[in-house]
Amino acid sequence: MLIGGFGTRLRPVTYSVPKQLIPIAGQPMLYHVLDLLPSDVEEVVLATGYKADVIEAYVRAHPPRWPVRTVTEAEPLGTGGGLKNASEGLSDPFFFLNSDVIASVDLAAVARRHFAHGGIGTMTLTEVEDTRPYGVAALGENDRIVGFVEKPEPEVAPSHWINAGIAIYGRSVLDAIPAGRPVSFEREVVPGLLARGLFGFRLSGYWDDAGTPERLLRAQRLLFDAGRGGPGGLPAGSLGQGPVALLAGASARGASVGPYVTLGAGAVVEPDAHVENSVLMDGARVERGAIVTGSLLGPRSRVRAGHRVSGQVLGENAEA
Ligand code: GTP
């Protein structure tokens, strides 16, 4: 799994917390991605870089169901270089995942299709209206990918089916990645795989890449609506409506909270304040009478009494 990016679009929060540890619908983004893995996965390899030590410490303290190994890049190697750098000991085939994708996908079914067609890889695809930020696939017979363009202008996009950031590849893919330098998997490697049999697997359920504040909050709504939120319940003594995820020590007595809110560990919403469609990270505080909508409040940040905050991202310890 790739987890080495800087998360620039979620700054200033990502100056102190790596994107994948931001809690949405009650648990860090990374753990929602881990939840997708079939139970017979042998090991999870995290290709880390930015804030690798923070990720490693968190995973050690909150061990997932599978053994986890981290392989850290001294310098960012990009999506292909990161894979190459972490490739020793990978199984054949191996799942290749972005760590910021929130999706409804049956990875066991993706693996079955991969074995059935016998090609080099199977890339899950999701249909979107605006393809500009993504890699777009041209599909041939039996959903074989016959063309792939990264971030095309709309007039040259071959379809609306984009790389969903979840795939399975045979190990021989690794031979196509140059070692020891940054490599974009999508730009430099995927085009060369088409002749070796790269197939699409169309997703039909929800999908979101949680890389921007708006999409992170959308991902949180999708997770709650899919019943993947938790731990749940309205905080004791609060008003408002769920779904709300509440981490240890969070409180909102006399406040109105929800829908679609995560209150991180020790977060506090004071009486007469209102919070909806937002994430409050650990120790964030919304003071009396303040209103917070569509926002991501970093660790120990504070919204002052009576203030209104809408569509904002507050970094660690920031005040609004
Ligand atoms: P932005 O800076 O906001 O674009 O976020 P990002 O750095 O996470 O980039 P992007 O969302 O395009 O990355 C997609 C996936 O690849 C994420 O899971 C990233 O963590 C990961 N990733 C991006 N660049 C690298 C890298 O150089 N090395 C590794 N190991 N992973 C990377």
List the helices and strands and how they pair.
Layout lengths: L1 E2 L9 H4 L6 E2 L2 E2 H6 L9 E5 L3 H10 L6 E5 L5 H8 L8 E4 L3 E3 L3 H11 L3 E7 L7 E5 L5 E6 L10 E9 L15 H9 L4 E5 L4 E3 L3 H13 L18 E3 L9 E2 L3 E3 L4 E2 L4 E3 L1 E3 L4 E2 L4 E3 L2 E2 L4 E2 L4 E3 L2 E2 L6
Parallel strand pairs: 1-4, 4-5, 8-12, 14-16, 15-18, 16-19, 17-20, 18-21, 19-22, 20-23, 21-24, 22-25
Antiparallel strand pairs: 2-3, 6-11, 7-13, 8-11, 9-10
Helix pairs in contact: 4-6
Bound molecules: guanosine-5'-triphosphate (GTP).
How confident overall, as mean pLDDT? 96
Tell me the CATH topology of the largest domain: Spore Coat Polysaccharide Biosynthesis Protein SpsA, Chain A
Q: For the terminal residues, how far apart are their CA atoms?
A: 35 Å
Largest sheet: 5 strands, parallel
**How many distinct beta strands?**
25
Bound molecules: guanosine-5'-triphosphate
* Number of self-contained structural domains: 2
The top-level CATH class of the largest domain is: Alpha Beta
CATH architecture of the largest domain: Alpha-Beta Complex
CA gyration radius, whole angstroms = 20 Å
Stretches where pLDDT is under 50 for at least 5 consecutive residues are: none
Inertia-based shape: elongated
